[in-house]
Write a structure and sequence with these properties.
Alpha-Beta Plaits, Structural Genomics Hypothetical 15.5 Kd Protein In mrcA-pckA Intergenic Region, Chain A, alpha+beta, nine-stranded mixed β-sheet
């Protein structure tokens, strides 16, 4: 069961305030009779809902894992710059949006969906959803620097960052894997700067149970697997 105004929003009829006006004006009918109560509960798969005599269907939630390239905005639309949704024009589903954001010059995993409830769960500070980044730096990240990151550092906000997890890179590359449970503005770059390093390359490789596989090329997307959906609780 779902509220009538939410059903209309999910079906793409308008914003919550707009659909409430439609309802109060008697433009919305449920099972053959006008319904003027936004809080009216309906059964999405059983009840017939009409707006101006046109039937509306419940919107199906869709979930896409996208490999964001550098130079692309994590936004639904922009008048002058390319956004992540420009890469998903052929993807089934309406009203897609990115869950959270990556900086324009940051690459990697981005989840796109039309499921607002899932987005809220993943972005809620209280959930502490882990996000792991591959970080390259201009100088080697020493063990002492990693210990400071793991304890939490002062990046100029009211509170220090929460403790992070770190893993050194194999080989000769400067940098590390950094796992956070927060999403502050430019957080990775600010944390590394606080311990004496500058980020030269940044890529998100995982978010919660989602992992960006090497086979998914930059600018490509795929639907989440049933196992991934199960792990996300959807």
């Amino acid at each position: 069961m779902v509220r009538l105004d939410k059903f209309l929003c999910d079906a793409g009829a308008g914003t919550r305030s707009e659909v409430k006006k439609y309802i109060k004006k008697g433009r919305v009918w449920v099972n053959g009779v006008p319904c003027k109560k936004p809080e009216c509960k309906i059964e999405e798969q059983r009840d017939e809902v009409l707006l101006d005599q046109k039937r509306l269907c419940a919107q199906k939630n869709v979930y896409y894992l996208f490999h964001k390239p550098s130079g692309v905005l994590s936004a639904s639309r922009d008048a002058s710059q390319k956004t992540v949704l420009d890469f998903l024009k052929d993807a089934p589903g309406k009203h897609l949006f990115p869950v959270g954001r990556l900086d324009k010059d940051t690459e990697g995993l981005l989840l796109l969906t039309n499921d607002g409830a899932l987005a809220h769960r993943l972005l809620s500070p209280a959930r502490h959803v882990e996000k792991t980044y591959l970080v390259h730096t201009d100088v080697p990240v020493t063990q002492q620097m990693r210990l400071r990151l793991e304890e939490g550092v002062d990046i100029g906000d009211k509170k220090r960052t929460l403790p992070a997890r770190t893993k050194p890179l194999s080989g000769k590359d400067n940098g590390l894997y950094l796992t956070l449970t927060e999403g502050r503005f430019h957080q990775v770059k600010r944390m590394l700067f606080a311990v004496g390093a500058r980020v030269t390359y940044l890529k998100r490789v995982s978010m919660g149970p989602l992992i960006l596989e090497d086979s998914l090329k930059k600018g490509s997307w795929r639907e989440l697997t049933e196992q991934e959906k199960k792990e996300l609780g959807i």
